Amino acid sequence: MCLEVIVKFDASQFDNLELENIGQWPAAAKLLLAIFVGVAVLFGGYFFIISDKIDLLDRVQKEEVKLKQSYRSKYHIAANLDLFRAQMIEAEDTFANQLRSLPNSHETPGLLDDITFVGTTSGLDFVKLEWQPEISKEIYIELPIDIEVIGPYHSFGHFVSKIAGLPRIVTLHDFKINLAQSDSETLNLKLQAKTYRYQEEVTE
Fold this sequence. Notes:
The protein is of the alpha+beta class. It has helices at residues 27-79, 81-100, 108-121, 153-164, 200-203, and strands at 125-131, 135-136, 140-151, 170-179, 187-198. This is Pilus assembly protein PilP.
């Protein structure tokens, strides 16, 4: 024996419904209203409460990752602090040694004498040995020197080698070698030497 329950939907039962008389509404109307209110509460709760919490959680998780990375970096520094201090002292000593290799304003005239001595003892004759205008860089001043000498080719090698051995930093640039006009066996060498002075000495 089959028991069939037939629920008939009567649209007329939703007519003339008033909010003031919710208690008098038909059961179907009350059910639909309850479903609507429940869905509205769920969506409203999600968008106004849960979604903000989810965004906050995402931000906190990202901040947690950054803090962990920062912690690892600081921990690495702290664990190797003695090594870093030793490296800093070594770097400062190296920098100080390099500064001592730069001529100060009182030593630059003597540098021309050193270059002249190096050239003449290498068998070269000087045609030109002149300071050029200083060039200011970020932390140092560049001091160019135009040099022109004449002599045999092998003497040029001795000259360059001896300049590299000077106690002060001197670099050589723009080499040009030509035959001297007076003697086909004698060569003419033009180059520019550069030495450097620490910028701080000028600004004090």
